[in-house]
Structure prediction request, 330 residues.
Amino acid sequence: MHIGSGFLSPPVWGTMAAVSGAAMAGSLAVAGRRLDDRKVPLMGVMGAFVFAAQMVNFPVLAGTSGHLGGGFLLGILLGAPLGIIVMASILVVQSLVFQDGGVEALGANIFVMGVVPCVLGAVARRLWMRPRAGLLADVVTFVGGTVAVVAGATVVILLLAWSKALPGSVSLAQALAVMDFIHLFIGLVEGAVSVAVVRFVLATRREAAFGSPSLAAEEAAT
Amino acid sequence: MTTYNRNTLLVGVVCALAISGIVSYFASGHPDGLEKTQEDLGAAEAVHGGLDAPLVAFNEYSLMGLGDGFWGNAAAGIIGSGLVMGILLGVGWLLRRHRPAGSASATP
Prediction:
């Protein structure tokens, strides 16, 4: 879902750069104040994992592929601030080293694939921090992962429309219908993978992601 | 860090390297959801001045000199995920170093 170079107009990419820049600054400030030491290795490994997963395009509808976003998953495992930092690092490397996503569109891409899904993931995170996360957490994560992708896709179309990068013959509703329909299917995969990975981390590294139940209660209270 | 922790982290690193270095070679080559949407809407041409990063060592996800084949992709994937991990461990290290004294740090 990386927006390439040349699609966003300067006011649009400038605005998005400012918004994502503010989100990054806020995230770094929060992380600087209360970073659990055990989260650092998890950040590194999850960054490498999400970068890797994004390279694997799976077929969706005819002639189309999709890949994991990973922001929703990061929001659940790390919370919004650290998730945004991880996602921004991935997107910067993709854009500057691998020409994946326009450099001027970096702010927009961080917003769409980082800020939006990480904040939604952080909401679902609350369910996983309970001592016993049950079926509700799985369902919310599956549905939430899908919603996060469709929400991002919707923002992309709005930004393209604002940039006048959609042809005049296409209405906004039509563009949204095409984009969201495809991303609904990509989102279902995102939701399923999110549940599987969170379950795996919960089983093997609960402490690093969610803290002990007492710590979890502490974080939920702040 | 206990051996148990180190082992689970190692599993994560090996998974990431295997996915980026090997599995990604078999990824679908079809346009992704956004590219396909832009093609279908007739909006696939850049309309504003944009900025693409220069091709220095990599041509998209393949290491130059190794070509578009398996090895070029494997090298790009492994270097890319290693780079992301390195950056994040560096950021984490900096954040810990600059943490004000006395603030919460859960070290078991």
Q: What stands out?
A: Chain B touches chain A through 70 residues (CB under 8 Å). Chain B is about 50% helix and 0% strand. Chain B has a mean pLDDT of 86.
